[in-house]
Specification:
Elements (H helix, E strand, L loop, with lengths): L5 E5 L14 H12 L5 E3 L3 E8 L2 E8 L7 H11 L6 E7 L7 E5 L7 H10 L5 E6 L9 H5 L5 H24 L1 H11 L3
Parallel strand pairs: 1-4, 1-5, 5-7
Antiparallel strand pairs: 2-3, 3-4, 6-7
Helix pairs in contact: 1-5, 2-3, 5-6
Amino acid sequence: METDLWLVIGLGNPGPGYAGNRHNAGFMVLDVLAGRAASRFRAHKSRADVVEGRLAGRRVVLAKPRSFMNESGGPVAGLRDFFKVPAERVVVVHDELDIPYGAVRLKQGGGAGGHNGLRSISRSLGTPDYLRVRFGVGRPPGRMDPAAFVLRDFSATERKELDLHVEVAADAVEMVLAEGLQAAQNAYHARTGS
């Protein structure tokens, strides 16, 4: 086991019909990180697509579970066990309703806050104490059901700056790897407004 190996998980739903959904923000960030690692995703026996490479001077495994969001925990636990990565070096990138669109927030541990992907991961890992890079998708308008909102594509207005926001979230992941959670929080919480 190499002590500096990190596991970075992007959450989303598989298949082209979900690709532009708010719920797939984690997949979008992982695609950017895979490009930075100059590698392509390949199937892994853990029911995830993975890239093994280097980012921010660290050995990383980037992974996108092939399960649906609410069953993400099985593939994540499988990857954790296969690569022998402790929870404190697992980073989960996911959409977050309680953060304004495009803002990035980082934390370690905490509850699922109604996010079924996080609930599944915490249950399967046996701990909520992994790192989270939360990509703000904002609240649904009016009385729209939050579950329906996250399964909709980003709006035309949001898409104008989506690539920039995804790049910023990818930068935040790299800073967590290179400098740790505290430094990344100081940089990105200030940058995206507290």
